[in-house]
């Protein structure tokens, strides 16, 4: 008998995401799972649960609803203060996102408000965002800094992420994004020196990943190479905001440096896509940001043809995507870009986990993986994107226990 302290039963369809020969979802009908100490210890058919598992703990009855692994969001910016709802309204009336990045507007405006905010306020805001992630079925996020943009304020943002991880049931994978843009008022060369000589070495214990935005209005190819090259030498894993607003070298740099992810990629070329696939980099696509900036569709077919894994992310941030909903991003990926519902689901689970180096641990349900899953009121896991903008999550399980909204 397998000992467990949590079990879930009567999942009408349980998607393990462990692809079988005839089903890419590794689907179990009338499925069940058991967990101990936050890890899955058994997955199978409900009728076998009692004979195989000795449960000493909570039992959750899914009552025929669908169960999938907790969603994994591979690109979020959850540490910020203030609103840019007015910039959203301007874009709806024809303003371009790029034109909003001058003076005290755009990212610079969020930087000013984030610097002015107390760490305790930023933590409260981030905690509310964590609750919305969990409510929408996300159990793991990659979380970037990037609105502090000096030594003290980036340290403050990383500290907020560390405290957030202690307080929330959401798994938080911290990314240092000091190279978001050159902050307002800073001298370019001096800021680059501070990034390379002070911030990168100081933050190695606090951040798993280092990210840079490689294109105007942010960093040039040469600057990005220098920054990320140094970050890699210091032991960071890399992510790159690349080819979001126009063509550029970001995807090549991600491939050259063996980045874990290249993100956005609307303007990636076929050669860059091939290079990324060869390098083992994951494409992290951000449909909600693409939608609110009226960007072009990323080259989905070329990515498919190259076998480049496509993750789907919310890109939660105050400028281009104020949304913690991965199901919404999945709907947009399908409706706006023609990704299949199966691709969207793999994108928000398996491929996202791979980009975070959590393969086999998150984004799938199998013995040894995190006991993170979502019970959904949908007829099949593939139907999630069909419910556009409506939260069909009944329950979120994180670390082998049901998460209760406060
Ligand atoms: O992922 N591309 C750069 N960063 C964000 C937007 C940040 C902002 O506008 O505040 C993004 O879309
Ligand atoms: Fe981003």
Name a few traits of the molecule:
406 residues; alpha/beta; Urease, subunit C, domain 1; TIM Barrel; 8-stranded mixed β-sheet; binds N-(iminomethyl)-L-glutamic acid; binds fe (iii) ion
Describe the structure in your own words.
It is a single chain. With 406 residues, the chain is α/β, with parallel strands linked by helices. The chain folds into two domains: 2-69 and 364-402, Urease, subunit C, domain 1 (Roll); 71-355, TIM Barrel, CATH 3.20.20.140. Helices cover 35% and strands 24% of the residues. The protein is built from 14 helices and 16 strands. Strands 1, 2, 3, 4, 5, 14, 15 and 16 form an eight-stranded mixed beta sheet that branches. α8 links the parallel β10 (237-242) and β11. The radius of gyration is 21 Å and the shape is globular. The model has no long low-confidence stretch (mean pLDDT 98). Fe (iii) ion binds at residues 75, 77, 241, 315, 317.
């Amino acid at each position: 008998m397998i000992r467990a302290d949590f079990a879930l039963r009567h999942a009408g369809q349980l998607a393990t995401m462990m692809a079988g020969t005839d089903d890419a979802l590794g689907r179990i009908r009338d499925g069940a799972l058991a967990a101990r100490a936050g890890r899955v210890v058994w997955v199978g058919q409900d009728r076998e649960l009692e004979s195989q598992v000795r449960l000493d703990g909570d039992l959750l009855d899914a009552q025929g609803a669908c169960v999938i692994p907790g969603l994994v969001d591979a690109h979020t910016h959850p540490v910020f203060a203030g609103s840019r709802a007015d910039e959203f309204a301007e874009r709806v009336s024809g303003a371009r996102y790029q034109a909003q990045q001058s003076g005290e507007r755009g990212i610079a405006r969020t930087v000013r408000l984030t610097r002015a905010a107390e760490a305790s306020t930023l933590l409260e805001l981030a905690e509310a965002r964590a609750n919305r992630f969990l409510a929408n079925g996300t159990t793991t996020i990659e979380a970037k800094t990037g609105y502090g943009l000096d030594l003290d304020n980036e340290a403050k943002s990383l500290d907020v992420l560390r405290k957030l991880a202690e307080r929330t049931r959401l798994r938080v994978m911290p990314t240092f994004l000091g190279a978001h843009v050159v902050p307002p008022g800073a001298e370019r060369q001096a800021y680059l020196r501070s990034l390379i000589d002070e911030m990168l070495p100081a933050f190695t214990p606090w951040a798993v990943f280092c990210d840079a935005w490689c294109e105007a209005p942010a960093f040039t190819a040469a600057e990005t190479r220098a920054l990320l090259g140094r970050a890699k030498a210091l032991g960071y894993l890399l992510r790159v905001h690349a080819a979001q607003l126009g063509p550029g070298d970001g995807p090549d740099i991600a491939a050259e440096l063996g980045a874990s992810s290249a993100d956005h990629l609307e303007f990636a070329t076929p050669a860059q896509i091939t290079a990324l696939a060869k390098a083992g980099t994951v494409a992290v696509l951000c449909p909600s940001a693409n939608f609110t900036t009226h960007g072009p569709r990323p080259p989905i077919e070329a990515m498919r043809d190259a076998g480049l894994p496509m993750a789907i992310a919310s890109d939660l941030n105050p400028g281009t995507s104020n949304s913690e909903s991965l199901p919404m991003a999945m709907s947009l990926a399908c409706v706006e870009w023609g990704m299949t519902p199966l691709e969207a689901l793999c994108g928000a689970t398996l491929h996202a986990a791979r980009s975070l180096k959590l393969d086999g641990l998150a984004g799938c349900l199998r013995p040894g993986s995190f006991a993170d899953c979502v019970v959904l009121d949908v007829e099949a896991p593939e139907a999630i994107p069909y419910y556009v903008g409506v939260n069909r999550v009944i329950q979120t399980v994180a670390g082998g226990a049901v998460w209760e909204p406060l």
